[in-house]
Design a protein that fits this description.
462 residues, 16 helices, globular
Length: 462
């Protein structure tokens, strides 16, 4: 990483693509580890002897709620981190520190509130979201324990964004690595050796989340950080919190709408197909997470670089970063889509030993992932809106794909033309085509092309 005026991590120097890759590689590795963190529970539970399908379904019923809880880490963590990058590009370290402190305050406060509310309303919510008398005990056993680690999730995931925003991608990777390794080791111990089943999976997860949170706090209060987490910076500045929240709404909306989509899918699959199709959808969402890894790592690596250069008025470098990110994500998603279509059975068997799920799982997987390559246009458009602080556009296109396309189609298509469960799985590829193109083309015409004019204007002023 090039050295800048603040002594470290100046993204306005060196090749733009190298700056992005220098962050994207460790962040992708971190995402890979985070994925292991998230899906190892599903892999072990999916291979429990006796009731693996019911347990996997129960676990899947908790994921929409967990996704919505985690969305708040995006609201304040992913919302504050790009503003930090822009402030760093402007050379305003004090402002960057205040942004980080206010984000921390909101993450912890929200974590406490969410934990209490979910504990109170857990049972009616799980039944409303698709639980049956057979699957509720598994869902409740996992979720009741998972909630105890809510604050740890907020700190570990939300504040890790600020480690990455300061340019310490490897340290950010280690945040996830430490927690994931602990979770992977403890899962089989608690699940199989102690015979705790889904409760054991939850206990292992909470312990690993606690360790990740401690790691993040130790770094952000230590000497290596460019600016540290201080009590004085945590005093709420509601105007600043409004800006953080406004920018974080994109990631928040995307996560919440993912949760709402899962809820809608579970409800419709329960009506048209039964518990076995909810188990299949749990597997498909897990496979999707695997292939979203490089996309998430690339966009997370690009955001600080785009934001820093935008704050430094290096508009030509911003355009270079946009081109590189788009080309990389498009190339990857095409290759990933081909792999998924060629060997779908491998991914189904990874998450379940129930052979009754295999044939139908392969069939609907091909429907669900048909438009996966179009996700490149969605994420490469969104990363520009978020990285440059354009919150309204980022939020709109998050809402467009999920709320205005996926959820209505999920509710409507199963009842049309006899589609049944196939209608639920068709909603995803349709949204990828329509939402992806709309997001990318809007970014190109309203931001990318205008950036050329801003570049020329900046040169004229210089």
């Amino acid at each position: 990483m090039m050295q800048g005026s603040n002594g470290k991590n100046d993204f306005s120097k060196g090749a733009v693509w190298k700056n992005i890759v220098s962050l994207a590689v460790p962040l992708t590795i971190a995402q890979l580890v985070q994925l292991c963190y998230n899906i190892v529970d599903r892999i072990y539970i999916g291979h429990l002897p006796g009731a693996s399908s019911l347990a996997l379904t129960g676990l899947g019923l908790t994921f929409p709620i967990i996704t919505i809880i985690t969305a708040f880490t995006n609201l304040f963590g992913s919302g504050g981190a790009p503003l930090c990058s822009i402030a760093r590009g402007e050379g305003n370290e004090q402002k960057a520190q205040k942004i980080m402190g206010n984000s921390f305050f909101m993450l912890v406060s929200t974590g406490v509130i969410l934990m209490v509310l979910c504990m109170i309303f857990q049972k009616p919510v799980l039944y409303m979201f698709g639980a049956s008398d057979e699957t509720y005990p598994y869902a409740s056993a996992y979720f009741s324990i998972y909630l105890l680690g809510t604050i740890f999730v907020m700190i570990g995931i939300g504040m890790n964004n600020f480690i990455n925003a300061q340019g310490f991608g490897r340290t950010g990777m280690m945040t996830v690595l430490v927690g994931a390794v602990i979770n992977i080791i403890l899962d089989p111990v608690f699940i199989f050796i102690f015979n705790l089943g889904v409760q054991g999976a939850a206990i292992a997860t909470v312990i690993s989340q606690f360790v990740s949170a401690v790691w993040v706090l130790k770094f952000l209060t230590g000497k290596k950080a460019l600016f540290t987490l201080k009590l004085s910076a945590m005093k709420p500045d509601w105007q600043l919190i409004g800006r953080i929240t406004g920018l974080g709404l994109s990631g928040f909306t995307m996560s919440v709408t993912n949760g709402l989509t899962q809820i809608a899918c579970n409800r419709m699959l329960g009506i048209y197909g039964g518990d076995s199709y909810i188990a299949i959808m749990t597997v498909l969402n897990s496979v999707r997470e695997i292939f979203m890894l490089p996309l998430n790592g690339t966009t997370n690596g690009a955001q600080p670089v785009l934001g820093f250069n935008y704050g430094a008025k290096e508009y030509g470098r911003v355009r270079q970063g946009v081109r590189f990110t788009a080309m990389l994500t498009i190339s990857y998603t095409v290759i990933a889509w081909i792999v998924i279509m060629l060997i779908p059975g491998v991914f189904i068997r990874m998450f379940s030993s129930d052979l009754s799920l295999l044939d139908e799982g392969v069939r609907v997987l091909k429907i669900f992932f048909f438009g996966f390559f179009m996700m490149a246009f969605q994420v490469s458009g969104q990363v520009v809106f978020v990285g440059l602080g354009k919150s309204r556009q980022a939020v709109f296109f998050s809402l467009l794909r999920k709320v205005f396309i996926v959820v209505p189609l999920t509710l409507l298509l199963p009842g049309l033309w006899g589609l049944g469960v196939d209608g639920v799985f068709l909603a995803e590829p349709i949204s990828n085509f329509v939402g992806g193109l709309a997001c990318f083309l809007t970014m190109y015409f309203t931001v990318y092309r205008r950036m050329k004019k801003e570049e020329l204007a900046a040169k004229a002023e210089g």
